[in-house]
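Action item from last meeting closed. Structure (269 res):
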């Protein structure tokens, strides 16, 4: 009698983490080819682990970032995240300079960077999420022509996160909206809040349009990426349906609607 094959504990942790903390992304991952799905989970685990260390103010956050930065510079892997990246690099052309940019974004968070201009917000969004899009694109397969679009898609998702978490971040003393935009839109009364959200939604939508235009350049995983983009973009539509912040709290897209959007986008791609 053959016993069932035991799954690698790290792979199990990576898949479980993705499904627990990134439900939208996890739904899209189901559309990925099985041969690549495990490596996408592992890559997400690296990004998520570093992000959580920084967000939670863990004392070893800077040290763990430094280990990845050292690996990006050609050093030996000296942390779990660096060892996972070292393993992935045996199968995929990981762009180490892009991963280094991700670490710069994490250090922006560690330092409590203040964003004055929209260009500075764009730079931050590229560092913490555009880089993720580029590295994911390299794992899915691309000759590099999809990098700009992949970065734009990641940036669009990060801007969506900022709008979704606006109230939560405010209670934590975090502001990811440009000071110049806040000054232009006025105080946080309902009318000005709508103006702010309309402005920021338009910026995010423009990035989605740029990003989605490059999905066809991927060698595999196009249906999954299109579904992820569609489900994330639907958060913007939910903010609109909720009255542009007329009520505080997160804009939540229900699972049935997510599945409908994913199905439509997956078929189109």
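Sequence:
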């Amino acid at each position: 009698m053959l016993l069932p094959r035991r799954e690698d504990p790290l792979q199990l942790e990576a898949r479980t983490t993705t499904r627990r903390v990134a439900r939208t992304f996890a739904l899209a991952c189901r559309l990925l080819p099985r041969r690549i799905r495990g490596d996408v989970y592992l890559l997400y685990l690296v990004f998520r682990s570093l992000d959580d260390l920084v967000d939670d103010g863990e004392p070893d956050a800077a040290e763990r970032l430094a280990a990845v930065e050292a690996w990006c510079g050609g050093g030996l892997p000296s942390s779990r995240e660096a060892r996972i990246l070292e393993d992935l690099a045996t199968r995929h052309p990981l762009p180490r300079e892009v991963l280094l940019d991700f670490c710069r974004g994490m250090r922006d968070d560690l330092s409590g960077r203040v964003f004055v201009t929209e260009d500075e917000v764009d730079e931050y969004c590229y560092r913490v999420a555009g880089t993720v899009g580029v590295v994911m694109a390299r794992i899915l397969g691309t000759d590099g022509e999809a990098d700009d679009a992949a970065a734009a898609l990641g940036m669009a998702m990060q801007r969506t996160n900022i709008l979704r978490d606006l109230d939560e971040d405010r209670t934590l003393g975090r502001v990811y909206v440009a000071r110049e935009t806040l000054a232009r839109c006025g105080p946080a009364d309902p009318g000005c809040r709508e103006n702010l959200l309309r402005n920021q939604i338009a910026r995010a939508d423009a990035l989605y349009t740029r990003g989605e235009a490059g999905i066809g350049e991927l060698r595999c995983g196009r249906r999954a990426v299109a579904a992820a983009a569609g489900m994330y973009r639907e958060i913007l539509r939910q903010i609109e349906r909720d009255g542009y912040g007329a009520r505080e709290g997160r804009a939540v897209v229900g699972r049935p609607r997510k599945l409908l959007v994913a199905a439509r986008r997956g078929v189109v791609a």
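Note appended to the action item: The domain at 10-268 is CATH 1.10.600.10 (Farnesyl Diphosphate Synthase).
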